């Protein structure tokens, strides 16, 4: 590992000490391997919301670091995010949803993000599965075909964009009369889908005005201080840069295209 680790959470370290005293836990020592994408941001948002001390290690897609042998030992799937929990014998976890559940199982004694009540817990896990099996893969394809594919395949763009909007409408209905998806408080259910929905415009969806509950939910979550911190790990948040300066969209898409060099999905 040539790059140095960046310690980003001294505040979390002190916050955590009080939790340790109260619940007799050991202090966590976690490395997060990530890049500035929604799948990585979900995990840094969870870490920040839980107030867990951690170090972030940026994985360079430009150098294809995610496919290097040392990283494949941590995540055989060769993708970010992943974590290593040094406080539990260098235990590795990959797949963002699995990481978020792991963090709560070990480091959420106050049930901040994952309730213990079986019904509420089931509801949170249902939204985790919805995101991991539906929203992430579908919106990911919508973004790929509308922004990064070397040729414009209208059928593929429409198929994945329509499916993403269908998934948004499910979220919008679930949010009717509610501020958060489960149990009237922010949980993993919200943390996992939020970084994807907020970048709807990358998926050829010009606005989410037709989903007013979802739009208000995005605005509400964006204001959470821990969420803002998590979005800027391990690099400054590009989506916010585009939201602030929409004319930067093309420039940033070009930058991403050059990083992936037209890499197709599933390619090694
Ligand atoms: N299901 C995985 C998806 C991870 C994923 O697709 N990560 C992307 C960035 S968002 C990645 O590492 N891409 C690099 C590559 O495909 O080589 C998860 O949720 O952790």
TrEMBL record:
Residues 117-242 form the GST C-terminal domain. Belongs to the GST superfamily. Pfam families: GST_C (PF00043), GST_N (PF02798). This is Glutathione S-transferase. Gene3D superfamilies: 1.20.1050.10, Glutaredoxin (3.40.30.10). GO terms for molecular function: transferase activity. Keywords: Transferase.
């Amino acid at each position: 590992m040539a790059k140095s680790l960046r310690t980003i959470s001294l505040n979390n370290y002190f916050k955590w000490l009080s939790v340790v005293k109260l619940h007799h836990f050991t202090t966590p020592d976690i490395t997060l391997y990530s890049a500035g994408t929604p799948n990585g941001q979900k995990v840094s948002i969870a870490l920040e919301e839980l107030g867990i001390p951690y170090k972030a290690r940026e994985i360079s897609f430009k150098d294809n670091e995610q496919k290097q042998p040392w990283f494949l030992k941590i995540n055989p799937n060769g993708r970010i995010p992943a974590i290593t929990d040094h406080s539990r014998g260098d235990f590795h976890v990959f797949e963002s949803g699995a990481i978020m559940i792991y963090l709560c199982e070990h480091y959420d004694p106050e049930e901040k993000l994952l309730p213990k009540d079986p019904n509420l817990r089931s509801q949170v896990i249902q939204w985790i599965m919805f995101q991991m099996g539906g929203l992430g893969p579908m919106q990911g394809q919508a973004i790929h075909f509308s922004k990064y594919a070397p040729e414009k395949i209208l059928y593929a763009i429409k198929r994945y964009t329509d499916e993403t909007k269908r998934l948004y409408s499910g979220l919008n209905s679930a949010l009717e009369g509610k501020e958060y998806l489960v149990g009237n408080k922010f949980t993993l259910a919200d943390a996992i889908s939020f970084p994807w929905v907020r970048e709807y415009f990358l998926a050829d969806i010009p606005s989410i005005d037709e989903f007013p509950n979802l739009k208000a939910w995005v605005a509400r979550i964006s204001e959470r201080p821990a969420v803002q911190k998590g979005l800027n790990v391990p690099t400054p948040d590009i989506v916010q840069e585009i939201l602030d300066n929409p004319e930067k969209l093309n420039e940033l898409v070009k930058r991403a295209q050059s990083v992936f060099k037209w890499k197709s999905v599933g390619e090694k």
